[in-house]
Amino acid sequence: MEDISHIPVLKEEVLFYLNCEPGKVFVDGTVGGGGHAKAILEASKPNGILVGLDVDEEALAVAQKNLSLYRERLILKKTNYAKMKEVLEEIGYEKVDGILLDLGISSLQLADPKRGFSLLQTGPLDMRMDKISSLTAYHIVNKWSKWRLKEIIRQFGEEKWAGRIAQKIIENRPIETTTQLSQVIASAIPKKYWPRRIHPATRTFQALRIVVNKELENLKQFLNQALNLLMPKGRLVIISFHSLEDRIVKTAFRVWVEEKKVKLLTKKPIRPSREEIAQNPRSRSARLRAIETI
Predict the structure, then answer these.
(1) Please, which domain of life does this record's source organism belong to (predicted)?
(2) N or C: the chain end with fewer CB closer than 10 Å?
(3) pTM of the full predicted structure?
(4) 23 belongs to an annotated ligand binding site
């Protein structure tokens, strides 16, 4: 596979809020191509440890290559971050000093049309981060009822044209490719109502990806165990890319603060600078929140 470096979003902010120092143990729950992981390993040298998790085998292979200089301080595992507790127990860590989740789709996944994540490049309707999963975007698009399609597009895409889009999808079945689907979706929305900053199919693609990969369920499952995985004064840093994820994170953090279990490090979400957005346009919707355990 082509070696594409993962451009880490909010890299300096991640290092600051994780409080990266030598001798600490960190988990990158969404290691991707290893961009954040490399920065964490550098900031925690000579003896900081990083555990990197990802469900995507191809991403892990790239991370292994990109992080080869740090192999003595690196443990990579193919698993979903929702199973972090099990993985840490398996490798002998009860608690760690810091955990990072970068919930955005990786550059690696978007760059490969065969994965089916990009609405601008023709590829199969796949969208699975873990290739052994059975549910694909193709199955949802071509097999699910109009009502069910409308519900997931409305709920997980926050798309007000969900009903029209679902109807157009039904009318145009079978839909085989990403570009075919994006054209069908665009045709369902009157041109004068197309969003200015994003492709008209973006929200529907988001909805499909969330459902295929159980993204919100995994986030909630992780948050239920997160505090038990952190040392006292341990840090949890989460970068989200849409309001559904951010709302879940914000609510969990608020509850923990009220219960006096954590200290909130970010009163408002940290956003990328204009300079970062110019260098990496995909970072524009990133929001970072962080807490420290008491």
Answers:
(1) Bacteria
(2) N
(3) 0.95
(4) no
CB 229 within 8 A of CB 88: yes
Average pLDDT estimate for 136-161: 98
Residue 283, token pair as written in the block: 């970072």
Do the annotations mark residue 183 as ligand-binding?
Answer: no
User: Does residue 262 carry a pLDDT above 60?
Assistant: yes
Say how many C-beta atoms besides its own lie within 10 A of residue 116's C-beta. Answer: 26
Q: What angle do CA 115, 66, 129 make, to 5 degrees?
A: 25
Does the annotation list 36 as a binding residue?
A: yes
Please check if 54 is assigned to a binding site: yes
Hey, what domains does the chain have and what are their CATH numbers?
11-108+215-293 (3.40.50.150), 122-213 (1.10.150.170)
Distance between CA atoms of residues 165 and 184, nearest Å: 8
242 is in an annotated binding site: no
Predicted confidence (pLDDT) at residue 243 exceeds the cutoff of 50: yes
Residue 98 is labelled as binding a ligand: no
35 is in an annotated binding site: yes
Please name the amino acid found at residue 135.
L
